[in-house]
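Please review the protein record below. Tell me whether the encoded fold seems credible here:
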Amino acid sequence: MPDWTSDFEARLAEGTSGYLDEQVFLELIEQYLTGGKTDLAFATSREALQQHPFSVDLMCSQAAVLLELEQPEKALEILGHASRISPGELDIHLLQVETLIELGRSNEAEIILSPFLQEGSNEDLADAWYFKAMIEEQRDQWQAMHHSLERAIRYNPGFQEALERLWLSTEMLGNYTESVSFYEEIIEQDPYAWQVWYNLGHAHSCMEDYEQAAVAFDYACVINEDFEHAWRDLGEMYLLLGQFAKAQESFLTSLQKSDSEDVDLLVKLAEAYEKNGQRDLAVETLQRLLTQDELHDEAIFRLGCIRVLDGRLEEAISLLEKAVGLNAEREEYYIALAEAYFQKDMLPQAEFCLNRALELAPEQSAYWLQYATFLFKHGSLTEALDVLETAIDQQYAPQLDYARIACLFKLGKRQEACQELCLQLADDYDTHQTLFDLSPELITDPDVISLVRAFRTEA
């Protein structure tokens, strides 16, 4: 459309807007709404209805503006007037349903909606089932809401709002396997539905199927190159898959597509640089980020981790202590700080941090192993054995069992250690390297080598 806005706004301010066609008014209102100029959209709709007082489309447009302005009662009033002029207009009824949902009057909304759930164009049916889902969401009927959204999407695979709400209901219900089947069905119907590919990626990600998640996110990016969130999530999958060059490429593309420089995204980019061996670029990125947000705890943490790798331990400890001070609920911060303390021979501080990490994340077997390794290497063998037995009681992780066997050998409980090693090799041969990582001298122990060789033959 021609750019009416400047001229119209000037005349509106003077109180002499002049006559405009109904369609021009509708496009102006839509433009103002899209641009977040809600007050101007309302002023335009009011002027439009003065010139076209019987336009049902303009009444609906003004009702939509009133909903944005959180004035649902006024929106309902004008929609009632519109329905008297044009009783069979679907758009009016759907807006009435939306307004009644906003007012919490779901029973009235359902009565108005029910005739429109069986017949109509695919787009109209998609809208109707979407609003039915909104009613069910208001009633906390998550399963029913989920199915209604699926019906809406079957009618309109490109229905972005419905797909976004469907993902929320999927997270509430945790039905990721079912959602994968549904999204694959919709993709067969419409292979270019980029939001469906995006949701499919999230479902695979929640099932820890990162390769399939990356494939799905990649399709979303190819179909909609400007979909910044898909590029970001694709980068996340590449990080988890250890494909760091691809991760940094995806994060850089996401930054290019973004309206502003997202500091959280810069942290991810720095992580990809670091893991790809490009520490200088990682440091440069983090320092750039910290000029924008000097208290970004994750950026400070990542910079501290790099300084540990560089052997700049005093700087690393200062940074990691600052990260912990800013966010004391991140167990990985304590683990990194423990490592820095350990390398600096500050053993009580290291032990405190390991304990704190376990308090925050007792389900992490790697932290239990790290704590036991710390005690083991500093001669606290009984304490290390106690830690490992506590961990083994809580979860299954073969590395913990092999570490416990190493403790038994070190404590001189040789017969028990050999018996346990025999059982553990039979149960999980592939993880036996943990035994030698913790106690390298066992590599030359004839009994240990004999058992390992015996089970290697069987494996």
Q: What stands out?
A: The chain is about 75% helix and 0% strand.
